[in-house]
Fold:
Amino acid sequence: MNRASFAKIWRRVGVFAALILLIVVASFLSDRFLTVPNLLNILRQVAIVGILAIGMTFVILTKGIDLSVGSLLGLSVVFYAGLLDDHGMVVAIPLGLSAAMLAGLVNGIGVAWARIPPFIMTLGMLSFARGIAFIYTGGTPIPILNESFYRLGNGYVAGIPIPSLILLAVLAVSAVVLSLTAFGRSVYGIGSNEEAARLSGVPVKFYTILVYVISGLVSGLAGLVYASQLSIGTPIAGQGYELDAIAAVVVGGTSLFGGKGTVAGTFIGTLIIGVLANILNLTGVDPYVQQLFKGALIVTAVYIMSRTDRA
Amino acid sequence: MPADSSRLLLDARGLTMAFDGNVVLKDVNLALRAGEVHAIVGENGAGKSTLIKTLGGVYRPGSGRLFLDGQEMKLRSPADAIGSGLVVIHQELSLAPHLSVAENIFLGHYPKTSIGLVDRRRMHGETRALLSRLNIGIDPRALAGDLSIAQQQMIEIAKAISYKARVLILDEPTAVLDESMVGTLFDLVAKLKAEGLGIIFISHHLEEIFRIADTVTVLRDGRRTGVSPVAEIDQSWLVSKMIGRDFPEFSAGTRRTGEPALEVKGLTLNGVFEDITFTAHRGEVVGLAGLVGAGRTEVAQAICGVRHPTSGEIRIFGRKTRLRNPKMAMRLAMAYVSEDRKTLGLLPNRPVRENATISKLSRFRCFGFLRLGKERAFVADMIRRLDIRLAGMDVEIRTLSGGNQQKVLIGRALAVDPQILIFDEPTRGVDIGAKGEIYEIIEELVASGICVILISSELEEILRLSDKIVVLRRGRLAKTLTRHEASESTIMQAAALAG
Structure:
């Protein structure tokens, strides 16, 4: 087999093959691994970062980055917690989601209109949104007592955890949007060559803004799961999650240079990181040492990808 | 002219090269004498760049021998080649933009003072001496990044001379230059020739071969199909050796033109161009000629909504319009094929299919979703119609040759069903075979009643295709010539001379 065709096959199934390999190895290392409760547990544990990573995929496909997703998650969490008691879910959920989307809109306008580099714009928002979360709560976590809200993060439908279902729904919608709509196609075009896309009549500014709004929206959805699972609205919710989301995206084969990648890849990247953490836990590896594995995984995955890219 | 008695400088015998069983160079001989300019021509894929890379030490030939001054050479790396006096000037220039001219020339072997610091005075002095010997009027202290492409190229050549190059290989040096800069480059080449260097010259522009080369070698499919002193051949000999058939003829000047399609009146973009007026009809090619920097591209971009003119009027099929963006232009059936494929055209890492349809996705939309089957059928039809050669519509466009990339971008413009089509340097960086095919495409479009605006730095191209030629000079309309008035000299006079 020559190098070019190997690269092609790797691009199509490589990340998936890596996941399968990891699962096979994991099932040898622990007989508790390949059980339905454990697998569902993994799927629930990766839900929050998985959802964030899908929104992040949209942004990275346009050659951008969104460092604020962890803070936007935190922002939505404190609004859910603060509004649930007095107004109920019907008000709290839309308002929490809107807050995250509004912050995403500001990111988008800053990037598309004011031409602020995405790294800087969203770094500013990372701090700004976190600040609002602290101001809103006065720094103290707000407990959540709503029963049906609790079910969102902890309940099951047809035996599958609701957070996992939310993740799969976000995945399915995103996959369809990216591959089968003019917007999705244009996202790839913008990331591949923004000027060429503009000259081809793509509404580059509008779509760029939309991408950051989507990232804000899914941050709010991830916040929903977070607030419900922990039953508390803490202003530090989601701190550092942006990096986990970026890691899942790049392990899943999306290029940081834009225009290349899929949300399915991101989902598999999320699972690879999740399965790795799970098997390290099951085999009793020191949590500090687990960090080393995760770091090595990210760098190795990107290294392999860059090798095959050049072939 | 090299005298027959002049010595053989470089002698390559039976060079053969294969990648994965794919023979790209087959038994090629090349003899270069001191003081000779030897041109190598051939279509893309003919083996020119493999040959250059073999001579430059990048590839090691599968078989064949290489002699320099009668001594057999085994080149293991580009550094080896440079050390032996074989220097390749690549198309992509490689000067460090933030260093001065002198620093670039001495990069890696700076002269040192007694205490080990860089001896700037000596460096500048030697650079100045070198540049004046070569008649290059550039300040050694200027930053490389501030120089024009042509000047950077000359500095690259001067750098090669400072390495004591004996064989200079110029890989398409004129591809990025306009007519006037080409002249300056050729003066330098003549100078080097007089100093006894052997020069290998690659170009797609056949007329340049006749201006500058003593000998020409033609490659096709990795084989040498012809070699001859330039004085004994003509252009059609070259073309037939290159493509194995004759070049198409055109109907410019005899076309039946229709109603006015595009009327431009007093179009002005402050500080860039002013008072541009012309009319283009259905079924007509209007050529926009002028030197690089005359404002041709800017005028075209202002017409199709990429730039916003400060004053003046544009009428499309009689209707006055003010275009805010390219999308509006496309809606009015006007499309623009950019001169700059890399930065303004290609979506490099996306499939050909997506590149072709990005301009008009609404074509395939049904209740908000793209119908991929419909898209595939559309692209398949385009590939057939434009004769695009590729492994499949899902390969990344960057893997295609320049000519085929260009055809895909033409297809992208055609996807909007344009009535007015602006081609900006449509054959830049494409080989002669594809060039002829692109001309045929333009010819067909015009015959079907489309109005074409053609921008080109190649006078021959403008003359071959245009019914009417609008010549710009420094952002102003210099002259409008009919097909019958136009010739290389009337265009150049209008483009370059005052009054």
Notes: The first helix of chain B runs from residue 48 to 55. The domain at 8-243 of chain B is CATH 3.40.50.300 (Rossmann fold). Chain B has 17 helices and 22 strands. The CA atoms of residues 118 and 294 of chain B lie 42 Å apart.
